[in-house]
Amino acid sequence: MQAAAWLARHPGFVIAPLIGLGLTLTLGALVTTAVVVGLALGLVVWGRAHPATFDRYATPRLRATWRRWTVYRGNRWARLMSDCGLTREHRHTGDTLVPRVLRVRSYSPTIDTVYVRLVRGQDVAFWQERAPVLWEALIAHRVAITRHRPGVVAIVIEWELPFTRTIPAPDIPEQADDVDLGAVEIGDNERGEPFVAPVIGGHRLVAGASGSGKGSVLWSTLRGVGPCIRDGLVRVWMIDLKGGVETEQGAPLFHRYATSMGDALELLTEFRDSMRDRQDDMRDQNIRACTPSAGTPVELLVIDEMAMLTAYGDRSAVREALRLLAEVMTQGRASLFTVHGYLQEPSKDVLDVRELFTQRICLGVTAASHVDMVLGEGARERGALADEIPGDARHAGIGFVIDKGSRMPVRFRAAFVTDDEIAELVFRATPPANPDAQVIDMPDQDGSTDDERGAA
User: Fold this and answer.
1) Contact 165/152 with Cβ under 8 angstroms?
2) Taking the complete model, does pTM exceed 0.90, yes or no?
3) Angstrom distance (rounded) from CA 391 to CA 234
4) In this structure, are residues 379 and 402 in contact, taking their beta carbons and an 8 Å threshold?
5) C-beta atoms surrounding 201 within 10 Å
């Protein structure tokens, strides 16, 4: 009975020999051998001629099959489960019940996802408690466990860190038609695929300690929408309360720019009023949702070091900023008004409107509690170990997002954008001179601005 059940779960071991026998009886042994050799050579030629498509379609399946039969089966798997305390003894027969591997997926050379049927009496919480033991027993870099469906868990095993090199900055698209505002490339994910994130349809929160790579996310996003900025399909409103140190180089790209608290409140008020004006136009024209165009551009508000605006400033100014942000973030989606906030400390005391951000990105943070604050409850238990990302330059730009389909944390690395590449972006994407454009001038050390010196 056990043999029959095993064959039912692995029909290939019956079907493949039957096909081989049928071909041999029909075509002869020589022709059958030639067919098999031809298929093998075809795979080799495919891998050599088109490695990109081979790596996308064939390699993950071949790798998953190999690892299933060399790592996740038989006595080796049973011993692993027993050593980690994940087996149970049948109370009547005394037999050892071993969790059964249902499927293996291998998205990249460094990552496997193993779907396992639990034995009766176990749940996901029990497995998550044993995750550190399993992690060490496998000698893996990371293990994350989550519920896949009733009675089945998904175990993500990261054998080694997938990002061994810096990701180069994404190319600036040539034309606005080449830009998908719903999927702008920022870097690579742990599966070896482009990491993309939307600019429209919601608001983005990026949290990370100093030096974690927040600037990589910011400038990669702006490079990805460069032609849209140039053609007026996206207008960038920038608030940088660190004095503009990290964003001044890109000032020509910005429709509005503020580097002090007072100017930031003026900018926020104008941003909110522009949203109200567009909402009035939408009502008059009976439009439920705008489409990006020169007449109705995406209004992108970027706030660098958001805590200076929402927590650490004058109390009355902070309350006014939070009120304006809440109004925009609750009403701006259909009218194409979106907010991207960057900060180091994501607690509610620092960012009272945190729950209004629909897309969350967590780079390297300094506390385990910050992970769940950004990515949602239980994210760290499911493997988003952002607090364990080293804080050195070699790991800058590495972080986690939550996959909307599986709810599993996905690791990514944002592309590194150099000063020269920011200068290239400014050269290629600066919009035509706008008589209404306003750049808030930063005072010099003597407290005077360029306008004041000119008047003098």
Assistant:
1) no
2) no
3) 33
4) yes
5) 14
pLDDT tens-digit map of 292-347: 999 999 999 999 989 999 988 889 999 999 999 999 999 999 999 999 999 998 88
The CB density around residue 25, as the number of other CB atoms within 10 Å, is 10
Which single residue is written with the structure tokens 């020269």? 420
Task: Give Cβ neighbours of residue 58 (< 8 Å, ≥ 6 apart).
Answer: 43, 46, 47
pLDDT in tens, 159-211: 887 788 889 998 999 999 999 999 999 999 887 789 999 999 999 999 999 99
Q: Which amino acid is at 311?
A: A
Residues listed for the chain: 456
Backbone conformation region of residue 211, classed left if phi is above 0, alpha if psi is from -120 to 50, else beta: left
Which structure tokens are listed for 93? Answer: 């027969």
Q: How far apart are CA 339 and CA 341, in angstroms?
A: 6
Cβ atoms 223, 170 nearer than 8 A:
yes
Q: Following CA atoms 69, 145, 357, 342 in sequence, which dihedral angle do they give, to the nearest 10 degrees?
A: -80
User: Both tokens of residue 142?
Assistant: 């990371």
